[in-house]
Amino acid sequence: MRFTKMHGIGNDYVYVDCFQESFPSDPAGLAQRIADRHVGVGGDGIIFICPSEVAAARMRMFNADGSESEMCGNGIRCVAKYVFDHGISTEKKLKIETGAGVLGLDLETEGGKVSRVRVDMGQPILEAAKIPVELGGSPTAKVVDVPLESFVQLSNADGWIAVSGLDPRMTCVSMGNPHVVLFCKDAEKVPLERVGPELEKHAIFPRRINVHFVEVHSLGEVTMRTWERGSGITLACGTGASAVCVAGSLSQRTDRKILAHLPGGDLELEWTTDNRVFMTGSATEVFSGVWP
Rounded to an integer, what is the distance from CA 202 to the centroid of its chain? Predict the structure, then answer.
């Protein structure tokens, strides 16, 4: 099976062109083996680029633990780059089918290759039942600045809550996949490797959740760190950055247009007044190979 390794600001996946290759019989098992950073190719998971009846291609994404996810913002930029650079489509305005629906993308090229991609991430989902988040209240209510300690007891043996300046209120957003956003004064002081899995698998999140800690520098600039559902700590999360843009605006901490600094690089986000989120960032092809 031929594959291509690609990343969007460090959020790296193994990509398989299913226009040329057969879809595997056990994609979850393959994801676990191929994503292993010691004995596999290494990555945050695997993404299959498949034919679609409604778009230039369809992406199916499996995390490093084998679970299938609806969408990946950094991954879809790489899918668009692959589709254009490898001649599946010659259009600079593409549609890609995902588990979260069909999304539109605008491609920026240099020397005949895609360098950056602007993605229409669609409309954020804010109703608790649809994210989903189970807090015992109205299923149609928004989860904005809800006191976290009313539902979750975070381990704080080393006093990280005070050290990081955590604001213990959560805002939840779905961008086709679920996200919880928490704001703090120093995101680097959050023990993400411990707190991330505590929140990801908590009972109030029935489909598990992506976890983000966000440090606000100004109304238009933030730094964020991510624990990604099914993959752990990642260098970037595009749907997460989109959720952070929405959460910051909803809680009046940021404007509707922000620059987000992630460990792997920067993303430009905008939540427009017609209720759509746009994300712009790079996409990079690293190498290709054959998985025996």
Answer: 19
Average pLDDT over residues 142-166: 95
Confidence of residue 24 (pLDDT cuts 50, 70, 90): very high
* Confidence band, pLDDT 50/70/90 cuts, at residue 157: confident
pLDDT tens per residue across span 224-242? 999 999 999 999 999 999 9
Indicate if 135 and 86 belong to the same structural domain.
Answer: no
Assess whether 112 and 133 both reside in one domain.
no
pTM check: above 0.90: yes
Mean pLDDT of the 51-57 span = 98
| pLDDT, tens digit, 9 for 90 and up, residues 117-138 | 999 999 999 999 999 999 998 9
Least Cα distance to 52 among 15, 83, 28, 27 occurs for 83
Question: Are 32 and 148 contained in the same domain?
Answer: no
88: Cβ contacts below 8 Å, ≥ 6 apart: 17, 19, 49, 56, 57, 82
How far is the C-alpha of 58 from the C-alpha of 60, rounded, in Å?
7
What residues make up the domain containing 45?
2-120+280-290
Measured N-to-C along each axis, helices 238-250 and 73-85 cross at an angle, to the nearest 10 degrees, of 130
CATH, residue 259: 3.10.310.10
Active-site annotation holder among 78, 184, 237, 245 = 237
Identify whether 72 is a catalytic site residue: yes
Contacts of 109 (CB under 8 A, 6+ apart): 84, 92, 115
How many domains would you assign to the chain? 2
Catalytic residue list contains 184? no
Among residues 18, 72, 172, 184, the one annotated as catalytic is 72
Residues 51 and 143 in one domain: no
